[in-house]
Amino acid sequence: MAHLPNKTLYFIRHGETLYNRRWRHQHAQVPLSERGRAQAAALARRFAREGGDEAIDVILASDTKRTEETAVPIAAAARCPIRYTPVLQELHRASSVVDRSYFHPRSLYSVAMSVLKARDPRWSFEDAETPAQLMARAGRALSEILNRPEERIAVVSHRVMIMAMLDEMQASCDITIEKFLTDLLRSNLFANTAVTKVSWEDGDDITDRVTIHYHNDTRHLHA
After folding, report:
1. Is 1 a domain residue?
2. Rounded Cα distance, 106 and 111, in Å
3. Alpha-carbon torsion (187, 190, 192, 193), positive or negative
4. In terms of residue numbers, what domain contains 55?
5. Angle at the Cα of 217 (from 158 to 134), degrees rounded to 5?
6. CATH code of the domain containing 150
7. On the CB side of 105, how many CA atoms lie within 13 Å of its CA?
8. Alpha-carbon distance 73 to 70, whole Å?
């Protein structure tokens, strides 16, 4: 990429769903729970209250129900448009585990095999997305974001995808067993509606220009 204009990005995980609470793999049409809607409303009040230096020009959101229901209140409070894109979807898990518990034997088997095969970029569990494919998609997402004309962008997405984009930003995207395990564990630290604020200075090298102002911030849930 030849030139990057200054950007301020707010990476936001969607609000809680009943699938989150019940530890189930989600499909695209899972809505927010009552608690998740309250979280989204609190997040909207946060951005409406802050404004100024924390203002948002546009929201880019994954095209799932839970991210839509998170983004809409923010857009109303910040008075900005929303653009939906499939590139921001969550890690694509195997169809055979969707709707099932994380602790279902099939789910546990898929995780174990994914870890064992993490060094083989050609291997995938059934129709699931591989770590290498996820990181490539995260790179495409960042390219699309950084090439937009707006300077202050909220990105409403999912915990593993946000982790992948942050890894890409910090140029730490080698797919190894150790990294795969570490990042899966670290992605659990992204709370529902948590915000991570990142800025880029003008320049050609993304890695050298990144500043993470705060990470996994949920102050709006305690206001």
Report:
1. no
2. 9
3. negative
4. 7-222
5. 25
6. 3.40.50.1240
7. 0
8. 6
